[in-house]
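User: tokens in, sequence out, please.
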């Protein structure tokens, strides 16, 4: 052990991922051993209190279904916040949750000015203005601490009048201590004031006599009064010097003696001892005498006293251990990961420089310019860009100093000075290279996306530097053992641990502010412009005489293109750069936050703390919505999201490895450059369309040729983009060969979990999944061997047969399986006929290795086996509605064979075509007998996720074209006809799903139209703009502020406590003039009114997504409790083959418990609680679609006969009753709109007379507005409009216990396949042998060639 940890590390001794970001000849500070277990606790001296350890939790005393049912049926803790105000309104409460853009800009400028003491006077000016305007609404204790820290640093370095600076610091401390601005001091505050006293107090060498700083006794009394652990004060991050810390401990010890506080004396003594004892793996080995230092004090015998040097970092590490009551991750475990994260740009620069120097030494620097490597170009760009940025930032700073500054002006020099020019240069180059091909732009990117991404990267790198400087120690994720997560004791223990760990992390963090989109775009614009000015490449070619010629060209250029009918600015790559990116090594261009981790991810402690160790990530991917962030922040502080964070920790802690056997095959194919297994070829292998001779004279022939050429060029560009994407995957896989890796996860806004690394993960395409396997292996067992065979059949596409038939199918193809594993490229290539070829190949190899053993059941298998839902969205709908017919089609009910809903829908469509064909319909006659399963599959699958008729038509049209069922000119009309029939068939088959979808949409529509009760007076105020004099203009909601006040999003809470906020609002773009071009950005800090149509259409699929996400997390947590390895891709759950039966039982238990909790009833109750004080204007219900929808669902407004006369515009919803209790209709704002209606009618008359409109026609025009006038100013409670829940059918969810096919088949995720896989649609070129046809089943003679144990008989179901 000692020899392994003490050796001097060369690059070759480094683990490979560290080698990715290391200079080939340079040493590293990272220890070689980074996979050791956590250190044991030290033996504390007998006179010190031992760290308290939590008692072990008792094992669960209830079975899982009972315990989980009790947990899910408990009252859900809601997170309720006020709706955002319109952008032109403000309030203290609104400012607390939704900071406006101007304020956020001021905060970020203040942060940048404080960093490295860049411009503290300007930061103080902003701070004072914010204190006057907002006080406690925006400012927090960490901001006050940041200024105190800055004043102390300025005074210590004598960069100003020291007495004045000390006075400033003391004044801010008094503000905190008195809580005059509703902020309280914390441990950092007292640490700073103790440091101030130590450096400038009466006993320091720099005593300031003009001012008395608070003495330690006074400070200690305040610390005790506020119940702040004194150990957390003396170990605070602001005490970066061990000498300062030990002096402060002595001052506090004297103060504690004076106060006669024995507890504090003991705690300080313990802190000092802990600071000298660093935990180590050798704690149980006899001690070696430590290196000590002598002090001047002598004992009675005249011997100089020696002490162990105090180290403040040791104390911090021990403190985190004591506070969180568990061991912390040891340094040698996280060293490699820290090295990987913190040195990305520095080591990237060193590696580029080293390669350039090596080539120069070999005389190849200029000798082979045509063969320049991508990294050589990047190094040349970096050297030029670094100098250009240095000069540019200096010029910007000088220009800003000369200009007259307005209070709210955003100046860029503080932001550009946060990172040095060297780091800014590398960051800009790497981010631009990473963005290639993004946003649907081949060989480039959209300008707006580039500027915002690079600005965001600068912000993240700055925050990462702050995090790294603080040396925050990371506690390990809690382990509840077999006590489970769903008991009250387990949940409370989880919450206590997270709160304690979050306290340690937050106390160790310095304050930083988020940047606005405006700042990001401006910073990104400067960096990209500078890069485009200096980045050049040399292109070579031959002239007409065959001579080599060269030309220096820009590496990137800016242009405009029309994308989907919009003119957008794009940044294009020079073709030679794009070609190199697809061919050369690209590991230098991959940032660590895009890579897997080498250790288990940091546990999620709150909404922004978790995942990578040193790179900041958010627990949720906010869709430009400050509302989503505020909800998650509040829910996290309330402790409502414990199981969500725990679920992310479980997913992130699953260990993975690269499958070396599959990787070798992939690498061979990649280097050969031809198309195999959906890998794109190096050169596009399809022939270019030839222009027909008649194209010059025949317009139609020319149009057909142009369409074909456009399709060819798009396909060629897509091939290149796919090639670049695969290149990233292969480089990452190569880098991590032999290592155990982890994927940190976070959520989208619906609660679905995704790995944060974007390039290589198990959520990716078939290639990504084939390259990965679990790091730990488990014996197959008999059931595991059976499931391995079933998994192989599923991957090949034989997934609609019974399990026994699938096993027999594999047995009949053992020769092909063995040949695929042994000779994947030189053999028959049977595996290439699979739906998922690379996963099929990995399974063939796994089965081959198992069957080689005398006892295949003893084989240690690490291959993930999948259990997927059958159209999982429809499964949830069937369970929600008790839909017996729908349940049978999606395998919720027990059957002998798996049901195939796609085939069933296809059969229903075919029957409908037969009927229409008898009536003579031309499209039915054309399509009759041609309906295949795949034609309807995509539409059926996406119907549950809200696909529209237009979307369904496009999906079906693509299938008709691919399968050449109809002619090109008939495809659109045929697809339109067929889409109608498919959607109608789905509605007939899943009537329960349709009624629930309608209920969801109706609720969302009225929520989006609602207004908080307290906003009604202002909502009815007259618009600033007078009503335009248009004769045909109707008096609508837009003539008041009513429309602008409709700011209410659809919000609901999952059963795990996660608040889901739909982000759909009207798009208000802000124009920003950057140095590159003028761009339009959306401003999340300036919310607009909601988009009611989008809120309604998106709510059904989003709710189902949140439901399947809840099911997944429940399953993940229980798998962890029962010690099962678990991974997921949404509704696809993965584990070892031997664990499939156990996981299948857990899947069913969690699904039953989830739907037994009466999900819809809980949602209805939440809506009635959350929106109980919201009003819906009756004028908003005038829309015919809303009226019809509410009426069909049973929503009614009970009114008197007198009220009915005034509300005849809503007669579909009215129920007249003079005896029963009527619906409360608020008419308090009617008078406020009377003058608006009168003014409008007067304007109508004036305009009509000018236009010569007859008098009777004028009256008709006014009558048209009379109904609207009756509705204006009247409101009804939102909860009174919520329709009754749809009636539930006869299906009972408990029946899925008997369904063996509930979760079983491998259903390809449409979204993943559409985005991440390349469909193999054409044969190989003549340069490579074509793929052989699918091999027939082997004969009995062929089967006898295998050993007897390879023909394991089929096991029972």
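Assistant: Sequence out:
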């Amino acid at each position: 052990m000692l020899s392994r940890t003490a050796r001097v590390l060369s690059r070759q001794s480094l683990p490979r991922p560290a080698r990715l970001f290391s200079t080939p000849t340079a040493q590293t500070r990272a220890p070689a051993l980074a996979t050791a277990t956590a250190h044991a606790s030290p033996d504390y001296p007998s006179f010190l209190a031992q760290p308290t350890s939590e008692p072990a939790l008792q094992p669960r005393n209830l079975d899982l279904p009972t315990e989980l049912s009790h947990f899910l049926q408990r009252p859900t803790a809601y997170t309720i916040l006020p709706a955002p105000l319109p952008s032109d309104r403000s309030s203290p409460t609104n400012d607390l949750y939704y900071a406006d853009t101007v304020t956020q800009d001021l905060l970020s400028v203040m942060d940048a000015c404080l960093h490295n003491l860049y411009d503290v006077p300007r930061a103080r000016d902003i701070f004072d203005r914010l204190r006057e305007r907002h006080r406690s609404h925006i400012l927090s204790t960490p901001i006050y601490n940041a200024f105190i820290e800055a004043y102390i640093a300025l005074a210590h370095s004598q960069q100003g009048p020291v007495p004045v600076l000390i006075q400033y610091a003391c004044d801010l401390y008094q503000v905190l201590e008195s809580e005059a601005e509703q902020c309280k001091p914390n441990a950092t505050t007292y640490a700073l004031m103790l440091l101030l006293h130590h450096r400038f107090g009466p006993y320091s060498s720099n005593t300031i006599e003009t001012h008395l700083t608070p003495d330690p006794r006074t400070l200690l009394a305040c610390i005790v009064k506020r119940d702040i652990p004194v150990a957390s004060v003396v170990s605070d991050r602001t005490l970066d010097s061990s000498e300062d810390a030990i002096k402060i401990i002595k001052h506090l010890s004297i103060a504690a003696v004076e106060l006669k506080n024995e507890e504090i004396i003991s705690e300080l003594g313990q802190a000092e001892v802990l600071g000298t004892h660093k935990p180590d793996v050798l704690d149980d080995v006899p001690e070696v005498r430590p290196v000590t230092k002598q002090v001047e004090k002598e004992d009675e015998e005249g011997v100089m006293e020696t002490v162990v040097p105090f180290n403040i970092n040791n104390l911090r590490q021990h403190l985190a251990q004591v506070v969180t009551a568990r061991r912390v991750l040891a340094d040698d475990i996280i060293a490699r990961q820290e090295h990987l994260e913190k040195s990305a740009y520095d080591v990237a620069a060193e590696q580029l420089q080293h390669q350039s120097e090596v080539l120069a030494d070999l005389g190849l620097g200029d000798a082979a310019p045509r063969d320049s490597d991508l990294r050589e170009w990047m190094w040349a760009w970096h050297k030029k860009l670094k100098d250009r940025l240095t000069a540019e930032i200096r010029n910007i700073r000088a220009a800003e100093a000369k200009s007259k500054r307005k209070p709210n002006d955003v100046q860029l020099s503080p932001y550009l000075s946060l990172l040095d020019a060297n780091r800014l240069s590398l960051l800009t180059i790497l981010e631009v290279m990473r963005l290639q091909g993004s946003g649907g732009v081949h060989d480039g990117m959209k300008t707006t996306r580039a500027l915002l991404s690079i600005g965001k990267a600068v912000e993240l790198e700055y925050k990462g530097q702050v995090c790294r400087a603080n040396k925050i120690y990371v506690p390990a994720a809690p382990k509840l053992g077999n006590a489970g997560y769903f008991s009250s004791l387990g949940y409370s223990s989880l919450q206590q641990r997270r709160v304690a760990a979050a306290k340690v992390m937050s106390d160790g963090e310095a304050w930083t502010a988020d940047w606005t989109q405006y700042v990001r775009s401006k910073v990104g614009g400067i960096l990209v412009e500078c890069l485009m000015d200096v980045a050049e490449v040399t292109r070579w070619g031959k002239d007409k005489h065959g001579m080599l010629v060269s030309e220096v060209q820009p590496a990137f250029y800016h242009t405009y293109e029309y994308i989907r009918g919009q003119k957008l600015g794009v940044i294009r790559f020079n073709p030679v750069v794009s070609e190199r990116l697809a061919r050369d090594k690209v590991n230098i261009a991959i940032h660590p936050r895009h890579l897997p981790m080498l250790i288990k991810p940091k546990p999620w402690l709150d909404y922004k703390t978790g995942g990578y160790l040193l790179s900041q990530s958010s627990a949720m991917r906010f869709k430009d919505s400050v509302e989503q962030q505020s909800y998650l922040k509040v829910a996290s502080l309330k402790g409502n999201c414990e199981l969500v964070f725990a679920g992310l920790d479980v997913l992130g802690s699953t260990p993975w490895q690269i499958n070396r056997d599959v990787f070798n095959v992939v690498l061979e194919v990649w280097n050969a450059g031809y198309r195999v297994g959906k890998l794109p070829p190096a050169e596009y292998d399809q022939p270019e369309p030839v222009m027909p001779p008649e194209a010059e004279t025949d317009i139609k022939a020319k149009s057909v040729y142009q369409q074909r050429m456009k399709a060819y060029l798009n396909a060629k560009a897509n091939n290149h983009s796919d090639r670049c994407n695969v290149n990233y995957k292969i480089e990452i896989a190569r880098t991590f060969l032999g290592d155990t890796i982890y994927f940190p996860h976070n959520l989208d806004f619906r609660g679905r979990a995704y790995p944060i690394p974007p390039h290589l993960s198990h959520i990716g395409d078939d290639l990504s999944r084939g390259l990965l396997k679990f790091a730990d292996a488990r014996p197959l067992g008999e059931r595991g061997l059976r499931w391995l065979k079933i998994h192989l059949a599923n991957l090949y596409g034989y997934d609609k047969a019974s399990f026994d038939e699938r096993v027999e199918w594999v047995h009949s193809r053992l020769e092909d399986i063995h040949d695929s594993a042994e000779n994947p490229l030189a053999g028959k290539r049977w595996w290439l006929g699979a739906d998922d070829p690379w996963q099929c190949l990995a399974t063939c190899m796994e089965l081959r290795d198992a069957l080689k053993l005398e006892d295949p059941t003893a084989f240690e298998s690490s291959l993930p086996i999948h259990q997927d839902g059958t159209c999982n969205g429809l499964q949830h709908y069937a369970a929600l509605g008790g839909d017996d017919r729908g349940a049978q089609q999606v395998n919720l009910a027990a059957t002998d064979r798996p049901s195939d809903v796609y085939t069933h829908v296809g059969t229903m469509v075919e029957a409908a075509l037969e009927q229409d064909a008898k009536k003579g319909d031309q499209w039915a006659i054309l399509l009759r007998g041609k309906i295949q399963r795949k034609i309807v599959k995509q539409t059926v699958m996406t119907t549950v996720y809200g696909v529209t008729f237009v979307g369904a038509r496009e999906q079906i049209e693509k299938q008709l074209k691919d399968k050449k069922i109809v002619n090109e000119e008939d495809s659109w009309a045929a697809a339109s006809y067929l889409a109608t029939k498919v959607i109608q068939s789905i509605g007939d088959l899943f009537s329960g799903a349709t009624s629930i979808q309608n209920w969801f949409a109706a609720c969302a529509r009225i929520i989006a139209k609602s207004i908080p009760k307290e906003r009604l007076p202002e909502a009815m105020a007259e618009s600033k703009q007078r009503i335009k004099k248009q004769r045909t203009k109707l008096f609508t909601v837009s003539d008041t502020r009513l429309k602008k006040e409709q700011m209410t999003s659809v919000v609901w809470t999952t059963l795990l406590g996660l608040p889901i906020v739909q982000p759909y609002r009207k798009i208000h773009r802000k124009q920003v003039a950057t140095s590159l071009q003028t761009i339009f950005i959306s401003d999340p800090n300036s919310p607009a009114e909601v988009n009611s149509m989008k809120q309604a259409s998106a709510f059904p699929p989003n709710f189902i997504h949140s439901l399947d996400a809840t099911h997944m997390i429940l399953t993940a947590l229980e798998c962890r409790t029962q010690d099962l390895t678990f991974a997921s891709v949404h509704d696809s759950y993965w584990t070892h083959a031997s664990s499939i039966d156990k996981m299948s039982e857990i899947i069913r238990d969690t699904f039953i418990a989830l739907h037994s909790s009466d999900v819809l009833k809980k949602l209805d109750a939440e809506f009635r609680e959350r929106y109980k004080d919201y009003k819906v204007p009756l004028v908003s219900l005038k829309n015919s679609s809303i009226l019809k929808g509410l009426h069909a669902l049973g929503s009614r407004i009970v009114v008197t006969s007198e009220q009915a006369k005034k509300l005849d515009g809503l007669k579909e919803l009215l129920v007249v009753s003079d005896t029963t209790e009527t619906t409360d209709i608020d008419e308090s704002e009617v008078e406020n709109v009377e003058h608006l209606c009168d003014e409008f009618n007067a304007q109508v008359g004036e305009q009509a007379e000018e236009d010569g409109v007859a008098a009777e026609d004028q009256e008709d025009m006014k009558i048209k507005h009379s109904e609207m006038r009756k509705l204006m100013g009247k409101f009804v409670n939102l909860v009174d409009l919520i329709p009754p829940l749809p009636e539930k059918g006869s299906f009972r969810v408990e029946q899925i216990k008997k369904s063996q096919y509930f979760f079983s088949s491998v259903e390809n995720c449409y979204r993943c396949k559409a985005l991440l896989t390349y469909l193999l649609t054409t044969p190989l070129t003549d340069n490579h042998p074509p793929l052989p046809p699918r091999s027939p089943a082997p004969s009995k003679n062929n089967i006898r060639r295998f050993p007897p144990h390879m023909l394991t008989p089929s096991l029972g179901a």
